[in-house]
Design brief:
Elements lengths: L29 H14 L4 H15 L4 E5 L4 H6 L10 E3 L12 H6 L4 H6 L7 E5 L6 H13 L2 E6 L13 E4 L9 E3 L2 E3 L3 H20 L13 H11 L11
Parallel strand pairs: 1-2, 1-3, 3-4, 4-5
Antiparallel strand pairs: 6-7
Helix pairs in contact: 2-7
Length: 253
């Protein structure tokens, strides 16, 4: 005899526990709208420029260059997103400055708007490498000036940004990965404000798409694994010997 053990769906107006749900709970609630805002943004992404950027980046990595990633404020999260993590390439180097950390709160705005800081951050980078700049608005001095200085020095320049009025970063780089994030980042009305910013989620997908496309062109062999799987420590140790910046050196390999 076959017994149907599936849990019956709750009746309209009831939660999974049988209790009444509040208006807006479940699939039609605010949480669902936040999810859909992110999914819709991801579905709209144009990935053709990702492949083009990967084709430009792969020869530089193959020749020994690395990809530096720079962001200010919450964009700095993406500089760290691909660094020394399972599924990330060993040839990525975060270009991190404590003054641009989102942990600085309002002070980060002062610094990311400071003329001259961007060129200082990229000064001395190996021109054989590449710089990926992350900035949703593309308006502030640090990302724009860093990209322009790196390009002038001979580095390949890529940006994850949202094309729109006032964006000065897109024209400063050779390859633009358009995140399509709306002005102000937040997407879902809550009271008199908007919540559910999506730039980090969308930016992370563009970042990992670029890294995976590039590693595919390189033929593999440079991807870190979790240290918590069998053989993980030994696998990563071999990559650390090839890429010493993975041992914790800050900013440059």
């Amino acid at each position: 005899m076959i017994v149907n053990s599936a849990t019956p769906s709750p009746r309209e107006g009831e939660g999974r526990g049988g209790g009444r749900t509040a208006p807006g709970d479940g699939q039609d609630g605010i949480a669902s709208r936040v999810r859909h805002a992110a999914l819709d943004a991801l579905a709209r992404l144009d990935l053709v420029p990702v492949a083009a950027a990967a084709r430009a980046l792969a020869p530089r990595v193959r020749a020994g260059g690395v990809l530096h990633v720079l962001g200010a404020g919450h964009s700095q999260l993406l500089a760290l997103e691909g660094f020394y993590r399972a599924g990330g390439p060993a040839w990525l180097v975060p270009l991190v400055d404590e003054r641009l950390s989102p942990a600085r709160g309002v002070r980060v705005t002062e610094y990311e708007r400071s003329p001259g800081l961007g060129p200082d951050l990229v000064g001395g980078l190996d021109p054989c490498g590449a710089l990926l700049v992350v900035s949703s608005s593309g308006r502030n001095a640090v990302p724009v000036e860093a990209a322009a200085a790196a390009r002038a020095a001979g580095l390949l320049t890529i940006a994850i940004t949202s094309r729109g009025p006032g964006n000065r970063l897109a024209p400063a780089v050779e390859h633009v990965l358009d995140s399509g994030v709306p002005a102000g980042d937040a997407t879902v009305p809550v009271g008199g404000a908007r919540m559910g910013p999506i730039s980090t989620v969308v930016g992370a997908v563009l970042l990992h798409a670029l890294l995976a496309e590039t590693e595919t062109l390189l033929g593999g062999g440079s991807v870190l694994v979790s240290n918590n799987v069998d053989g993980g420590d030994a696998h990563n140790a071999a990559l650390i010997s090839r890429y010493p910046h993975l041992a914790g050196q800050s900013g440059r390999p």
